[in-house]
Amino acid sequence: MTKKTRLELTWVGKENRPQLEPRILLEDPALSYHAPHRVTDNDLFDNVLIQGDNLLALKALEADYTGRVKCVFIDPPYNTGSAFTHYPDGLEHSLWLSMMRDRLVLIQKLLANDGSLWITIDDNEGHYLKVLCDEVFGRSSFVATVVWENFYGRSNAAAISPGHNYILIYSPLGVDWKYTRNLLPRDEKASAKYTNPDNDIRGPWRLGPIFAAEERHVGLMYKITTPSGRVVSPPKGSHWRMLEEDFWKMVKDKRISFGPNGDNNPAVKLYLWEVQDGLVPRTWWPHTEAGHTQEAKREIQALFPEGTLFDTPKPERLLEKIIRIATNPGDLVLDSFAGSGTTGAVAHKMGRRWIMVELGEHAKTHIIPRLHKVLNGEDAGGISKAVDWHGGGGFRFFNLAPSLLQKDRWDNWVINKDYHGEMLAEALCKLEGFRYAPNPEVYWQQGHSTETDYLYVTTATLTSAQLQQLSDEVGSERTLLVLCPAFRGTADFPNLTVKKIPKHVLHLCEWGHDDYSLRVENLPVAPVSVPVGQQSLFS
Asked: Which keywords has UniProt assigned to this entry (predicted)?
């Protein structure tokens, strides 16, 4: 018996994995915003907009949001070779795969156990992305591939006119995610299938199948006679769905219909009140249900009449459908490729908390003004009328802190001068896996990993006497990690672990790296061309 081998996607530079620095986030109060007044008691204010490299931002979120995000929606660069203004869309194939892999690994950590990831993509990289996601999340985490009709016209320039994008869906629950996802509202078209032509007191109904196309069973192969006298038996290759005794009980209970003249094949009456409260989502999303690219462009143009450079925004109806299926009010939605900010705008209107990350300057020039209109109730487009949106709530704007370490003029790594004491303590808490929670009454309790294990950071050189005093205050029931530039004398205390900074943290991650959007070091070296006539038979 041959041993099965695991198939993996391979590409140039796959083995290069960045050692990310867990940056802290710095709020810019001048750019944070909330509505002028409360609109409802459910207004949400703890939303987050981050400007910066999205890989570093995802790493920055890891400590506080691991396992807490209910829905992740990302619309990454499709790597089509187009000259996108806001994204390097057209990366070399291997770079694109590395870029996506590194971000998916962090997204997996942030997802709640009952959460889901939705990724829009097209044919150019879609099939590679599916294999990559299988590798990162496991094939058992795959839920479905939605085909979204993003374009309903025809392109005369194409061999076959493209009319769709894909949406890959993954969840830690895999197929069991069906028990936590929401159904779609039953629209008028779906409800219109249920009528009541015989004035049944149980209400509207529709006909359901009574034969099952499965292996035949003796107890399910009987014949019945319709009220008109016609004899009916299961068609070839099928059988009745119930025993004969149960069939006649249903006839007596008027749960079986033979048609207005009593001559039709019998059918089961399925009542509207018996079916699920909504519709199970399907994998085909026509533009009439989920919007299309031109609709999205009109929404953006309505918000920014002076013009915008977004070529492929997503319509609010698409995000509304995703968020409705994947979340409930109050749940957390994340978009680390925020683009024009549609995900946050829609999530906010639907009463969901949100986090968005965007590297480009349009985080300020487009996303913030758009959110202002949403919060002020001035955005009447998109899904506003459908969800009866009138404004309210707020968000906080953050930048990524600079790298904790920087080179001095002698090329030595030193603590960044921009870091004051509180920033330094918070940054080192993240590096060491502690939760930053300074105790205003106990100076050395700046962070904790357990109820009895603490962290203390100081920029002073500590003496033996100071360490002895710390040890006495910590006591025998607690432990303390002390991080300082230097100390004199012995540091041998049973309840203290004393480490020197920055030496202690030098090898924990990559320092001074601010942009992971394009890792050109992964590119293979170009082959050296040899003029014809100088080529060896053995070269």
From this structure: Methyltransferase, S-adenosyl-L-methionine, Transferase
In the listed set 221, 246, 274, which residue is the last one of a domain according to the structure? 274
State how far the Cα of 374 lies from the Cα of 394, in Å rounded to an integer: 10
Q: Quickly count: other Cβ atoms within 10 Å of residue 426's Cβ.
A: 23
Least confident of 18-32, 105-119, 308-322, 337-351: 308-322
> Do 175 and 46 fall within a single domain?
yes
Domain endpoint, select from 377, 400, 423: 400
Question: What is the spatial distance between Cα 539 and Cα 537, in angstroms, rounded to a whole number?
Answer: 6
Residue pair 272/194 in contact by the 8 Å Cβ criterion: yes
- Contact predicate 81/134, CB 8 Å: no
Q: Classify the phi-psi angles of 475: left when phi > 0, otherwise alpha if psi is within -120 to 50, otherwise beta.
A: left
Cα distances (angstroms) measured from residue 126 to each of 61, 132, 321: 27, 10, 21
63 phi and psi angles, rounded to 5 deg: -65, -40
CA–CA–CA angle 131, 82, 364 (5° rounding): 95
The DSSP secondary-structure symbol of 439 reads B
Indicate whether 284 and 359 sit together in one domain.
yes
Residue 537 counted as domain residue: no
pLDDT in tens, 6-41: 568 888 889 999 999 999 999 999 999 999 999 988
Q: What is the pLDDT of residues 127-166, one digit of tens each?
A: 999 999 999 999 999 999 999 999 998 988 889 999 999 9
- What is the DSSP pairing of strand 47-51 with strand 353-358? parallel
